[in-house]
Amino acid sequence: MSIRLSFEEEFAVLRIERPEALNALSSALIRDIGKALEEVDASAARALLVTGAGEKSFCAGADIKELMNRSLDQQKRGAELGQSVFAALDRLRIPSVAVVNGYAFGGGCELALACTFRLAAPQARFGLPEIKLGLIPGYGGTQRLPRLVGEARAMEMILTGRTVLADEALRIGLVNRIVEAPLMPAATAFAREFTGFGRLALQFAREAVQRASQTTLNEGLRTEADLSTLAYSTADADEGMKAFVERRPPVFKGC
Ligand code: CAA
Known about the structure:
By secondary structure, the chain is of the alpha/beta class. It has eleven helices and ten strands. It has helices at residues 27-41, 64-67, 72-90, 107-113, 141-149, 151-160, 166-171, 183-191, 199-212, 217-232, 235-245, and strands at residues 3-8, 11-16, 47-52, 57-59, 96-100, 103-105, 117-120, 125-127, 164-165, 177-178. The site of acetoacetyl-coenzyme A has 23 residues, from helix 2, strand 6 and helix 4.
């Protein structure tokens, strides 16, 4: 097992633990991430933090040694596996935060892209260097990166394979914030900015925002109307508005 899933206070923490290979993703490791996500979804955790063991690397991408000498059918199934596990991360019921402690290259960058938020240590490095291997990103990078930073910047990163440092990543919107060590307390403090809100409202808000890049404006507005109406039907909405008029902090119950 090269991942570790732990539950600490209201957080689930998923750590990739393969530092000898800079936390590169073997197929077995990707399957383990998939199983861990099922466990997270069934838990009472309010946010998932994803990080890599060691100070050097978040994740250096798919395991290049494993990618060699596979049949095209195996390569296709490999891409589908990575895509489906990262899609499960994207669709998790709770928000996720990539805590990028070092290299986030190839599949590692794509892992961070599938999280709801990205925090970067000052030494974090991002890149989709597949082109240097004669390849292209296969775990969602060509689709999620342009949605996040725009087509021109995504095209440049993917066609040149160049490395983006933390400052630039922040400037182009690839990461939400740069955080100083110790990273995990900084990440939990960031996550606590939203974990106290109603679980359903957080879920509806994420779904509505995600829809923005997947559909037309009119369709997206219809989704927003539906989901915002659904939010009014929750006990948490009654509580939130009642607490406002009673001038007290709300107590959300997630229903
Ligand atoms: N796969 C397999 N092993 C990897 C790896 C990877 N992606 N990245 C690093 N490693 C291994 C190295 O082989 C090395 O192991 P050995 O000592 O047994 O040889 C160990 O990790 C340490 O790596 P380096 O000696 O290379 O460390 P460095 O500090 O000199 O360089 C690095 C760090 C710049 C990240 C460099 O390791 C590197 O370029 N790694 C590959 C990054 C990459 O190309 N990622 C994309 C992979 S393809 C992909 O992800 C496809 C997709 O879309 C899903």
